[in-house]
Write the structure tokens for this entry.
Amino acid sequence: MKNKVFIMMIAVIFIAGIIGSVIVLTAPQKSTVRIVSDGTVVDTVDLRTAQDRTFDVTYEGHVNTVEIKDHRIRIKDADCPDRTCVNMGWLSSASMPIVCLPHRLVIEFTDGADVDAVTR
Amino acid sequence: MGERVKRLTKLGVLTAVSLIIFVIELQIPNPFPIPGIKLGLANIITVYAVYHYKAHEAAAVVTVRLLLGAVFSGNFMALLYSASGAFLCLIGMLLLRRVIDEKHLWTASVFGAVLHNTGQMAAALLVTRTVQLLLYYPFLIVSGCLAGAFTGLCAQLVTARLKGWKRKK
């Protein structure tokens, strides 16, 4: 009886570990996003804790509308001619940032070390 | 030959065996490139020692194994992580030995392995101060459960084989 309790505990720990591993593997490895306009970091967002919101990033009169929703981030709208950044959709890969070349806007995952450097 | 000398000799042999297992395991390439994940075959002896010797004797076997293991592997940085893991594991298993009988040694071994990984993780977090390391923790838990069950079952086999060794005294 007692041993069954321990085996149950092991099963729970093991399953929790597997679920955690799946979450880590499927979630983006990094959760901090950096918004860079014309080479300067204008905002750093932790997607895990970010509230859903929409805001504009302006560069020389041009506007990109950035949307944060359900802990994801994308460029919702832009007044540039090609709108490549809008078509890139949600930021999903750490190796592929969303870039709006005409407006010199980059949205990318950044690792914790950079955040430390900024907050420090 | 006195009883104490016999006991000391047996502990010495156990330490030597676990050290040999440790060195051999070093030579086996690790298929998982995540730091902290390994089979930990040397812990077969740890589990065995916890269940057949006094607390301080098992602690002595583990301590000497750790120090000499660091000497043989030349990796003293890893000593910090392996030591914090090993001692947490040792304390946990010494407590579990009161409630888990020897037939279910493998369950104690699983708890020990998970505690080992927890100690490692705590040490790594304290040393590097990088919270992102926690992303590895679920993987460590899964591997700890599997490796702990494996080493625990091995220890049960060892126990069965060493029955004669124990009885002769």
Notes: The helical segments of chain A are 2-26, 84-87, 112-119. Chain A touches chain B through 20 residues (CB under 8 Å). Chain A is about 30% helix and 35% strand.
